[in-house]
User: Fold this.
Amino acid sequence: MRAVPVMLFALLAAMLAAGCISSIGSTTGYTDEYVNALKARVPLTDSTDTVKCKDANCVCMVCKKGSSLFVFFTSLAGGSCYFDSHCDPSKFKSIASGTYGKNIVPNYFRIGQGPSFSDFGAADPWCDDQGGIAVQWLIGAPGSPYALPSARRALCMLDKGVIPVYVLYSGGKDINIDQTSQIANVLGTQGSSVTGGRLPGPVGPVIVTTEMNYDAGQAAQIKKQIEAINAGCRNNRDSNPPVINCMVAVAPRLGDYAALDAVMKDPATGQIDPEMNKSVDLVAYGIDSNTMSLAGHCTQPSVAWENATAFSRYALYNLTKASVIPYVLFDAGGTDASGSCTWSEATMIDGYSAFFNSYVQALPALGVIGVAAYSFNSSSLGLNNPLGCKDCDLARDSARMRSWFAGCQAYVNLSRKVTNGVDSYPSDGALIRYPDQPSGSCQDDTNNIAAELINREYTSNGLDADFTSPVTPQLRPPPTGTLFSCDECVSDKAGAAPFKFPTYTAAQTACTQYPELDSFASQRSLDPTYVRAVVASESGNQQCAIAKVCKANSGTSGCFNPSNSGQNDPCYAQGYNTMSDPSSTCSFTPSSANPPNWRFCGLGLMQVLEPPYDYWPAQYRADGKDGPDVAVYNDAVKRGMGSLMGLGSPGDGMAVAKACDPTNFNPFNTTDAACAGTAILAQKMVQARKLVAGYHNYQGVNLLNWFPTTDVDKDSVFAAYVAANLYVGTWNTCVLQDSRGICIQTKGDKWVGDFWTSWTANATYCSDNYKNDHTSCSGPGQPNHCFGYTDFVTYVHDCETNNFDPGAIKMGYYYSLRSICKNSQCPDWQALYNAQKAAGGKVPQIPAGSGDLLLPDVTP
Assistant:
């Protein structure tokens, strides 16, 4: 029989002895029966030893909702949340019933999943599509700042009632304040731009942590992060009620009271710092079996939850702050912090199941608003695993799945009891309402459902409802597949592309091969299908692909471009003379000529330029020594490869490679290739979006021919096309320099300017400029002077590139894959829409103009 947590008995004993039991309020029959049973077996202290109960206020978490597209979700898109510290029973019942104020709803205790939105999407069906928090780690490292979130993905989650939790993490090595401001700015302003003005600015209530697991010595930087998040998110804490678009969570390691106090208390007085108290909403901490000490209790993983209970109690009663637990990690085969206890599979499973069996009531009562599992399946694939667990994925086998998701299924399928014993709609879980003093209790009929959870689940399994011997319920298969994962989407418009991209037939295997592509796409806020399109066109989905770039008229076969073209292939001047794969999976033959007839440029699955670790110079290597092949690297850098990789720039490709694998990077390893390639592609996407915005307002002129300029979807597709050309170096190739040799026009800028000349040509223009050759300007058929084009891609194909446009090729693959890949989640509302329609449910009308449920109608 599993031991009952001592603290549960101690708490109830204190309440009974002090006469506090009367403050509990009305309870279910099951609760009364349970409390009466406890009286018989918990020794009561003498009344002279007790302390009189102090008055306590009840706190509830309240949110302002948005307008939902789907009838069974409470949308939070464009809304906000705050804590009401005077939530008496009357007010709380009014909020819960929807009569307190327009669009005001209570928040409930949420179960979630990380470390990425894609993990959440895969896990959510196992919690009956009722997961409440989606955790996305924004990873940073020296030279590679925290990843930026996607406002579009945040809105997708919020529209389904899911609160995104963004965890900033660099292992304490790069607490980047400027990037923190950028993250907050995305979440605080881009709600308007990605919805075509439907929202005023902020995406809605999200949670943003400071650097996760910081230490006391970093408190000054953490305070700057807190300030940056509040400012960038446009939080208004002085209004009544406060408008909190981003809930700020200070994030020390579990049990690091010194680090928490270093931020939240005034060092001079030791008292709560009023400014920090006002600026911080939550304390965020995680449970990590590798960094906690079992203190000799190697077979009692409940110690982890007891530590969490104690830390949340301190945060609430000493610092007035609620808590959130954005990751729970039990690692089979790992050890505790002391190294004296090894986590077995059995203790790992007990660790996960202990939460729903024993702590689902205690933690919300201490102000914990949500708990998320660390990893569904990312870490086993060697993908998104910032904490470096060895074997912690829940999805590995059925026993692990049951240990967490069986309890989750039971929890989210409760029904709240209303008048006359009639059950209402299925509940998301217990509504958040907790006392701000240890002597208080805020349980009543509106949210005292955790005991009912245990009662129903045990009864359904033919078991006695006894907390002293909890038994994990059975796990039911999910009723649906993934209904939404909120992947970033190049286009959320159903139907054909808005440009005339070439048509390609992609293989079905390109949809699922190399699952690491999906994980890194999610981590970088890229459309996974778009990443796969880049891979299909760059390497043909071949791990050992390499760009063999040849000298003019060398007569060499297998070249990137024909070797007898009379011109050196692109990248020949900068390429590597030799190339090898440290794993020996791939092999390549160098040229024996001098100068060589061919060199090597794009490497591996995503054709990155960064070579294997053996080629790296000392400044990039962990051991501080030159690699054995560094001479090949240095030679290529002297000939221009350094410029192509952006060495020394904010997008330094070598810094990206080092962040992916600092000790053994290899572009012919598919995980390293996916990591580095998606990081670089994400940089190009940010650059492309800025370019597109600039083209819409170039010295007051819109150079692009779609109106209104707030056609968000068309802009997004065009940005993906530009980013694809930036990725291969086409768009930013210089075509015009000034007298100092400084580039003043790139190829892409020239294309846009020439296109503007073409599409603005009309009869008056032709008459004024081609009086003697009017038909060549406006006549039928293909214009002799490329006038009259209205499709940018067609114009570039016909007039600028001699049929070679890498961006168009990649976008052609994208639309091909999108049409055949059943695992594609774009448009991000499509799977949910189809499921609701198939079930005979009410579905919203898709706007005819925009073709996107999340956007207002657009007149072409």
In short: The two ends are 68 Å apart (CA to CA). Residues 1-53, 415-426, 445-467, 779-784 have pLDDT under 50 and may be disordered. The CA atoms of residues 432 and 483 lie 27 Å apart. The longest strand covers residues 58-64.
